[in-house]
Amino acid sequence: MRGMIGVLGGMGPLATADFMGKVIALTPAERDQDHVPLIVHSVPQVPDRSASILEGTESPLPAMLQGLRRLLDTGAECIAVPCNSAHYWYDDLAGESTVPVLHIVDAVGGALARRGVGDGPVGLLATAGAVFGGIYQARLGKHGYECVVPEDRDQEDLVTHGIGLVKAGRLEDARAPLEAAADKLRQQGVRMVVLGCTEIPLVLNDGNNYLDSTEALAERCVEWYSDRVRRPE
Question: Do 28 and 89 sit in the same domain of this protein?
Fold first, then answer.
């Protein structure tokens, strides 16, 4: 299937389903056949990404590489990973892949520019592992944005706690701590708050106040597919 996009998902399952729904919603289609072809590897048993970065627990890379190879074997021509923390291992995944691997932070950088956010600072709500690993800080810096992250106590009590509630399916309980964390970033004068964990947009979904990394990656997938199917063989 020409233009097949492989989705390396399951990190977590709700975030993967949300990503797929956004790809569908963003695709200009008048019939089934106009939609982006996706092959999805959603295996939630991948070891915890944030714990691996912060504490040196079991690496998720072998499981992610196994999923990547399955996607390649089924004919994927491009790979999307709807998990921000997994991008800590982006170079390893891209080095193993024989097709392009889209980077979620580059997708966010493009979305910020389209939204008219010309430069930083921008706030970042992400897992503690993603913050510690500098996944956004370094890459968004190349797009001209400075990242402002929560203070350590707020990261633990508000962001990490809120993400944990989402993973447990307690979406409404997660709203208050995540909104509080975002409000504290806005008090520091950020121009936009980036939802740099694909669990968070399941709760904070006001597009006027947040930049949704899941949606940004979905937009990039639709753009890639559109370019691919229009390009002559």
Answer: yes
